[in-house]
Amino acid sequence: MGLDKGLLKDSCITMGEWGVWRPEVAATKHDPADDIISLIMDEGKTPNWIAKKYPKYFMNNGHKVIRFWESITCKQWLKGGR
What we know:
With 82 residues, the chain is mainly alpha-helical. 46% of the residues lie in helices and 0% in strands. The termini are far apart.
């Protein structure tokens, strides 16, 4: 129904009436967290190894990497340090 006086529209709304639709775009930025998770789970890498291979990521997310490693291995990373 039309907004003015409740009249029916003579045609349906198409994409062209509101402009060109943006095509679906897949995520293009690679997240190193995917690599880190598989390295810890599949290859048994330690937080120290991850810090050397991905230093920038580790600086921002080291506590998450350590916590994940501790959860997977059921070991404490730094004894008495926290």
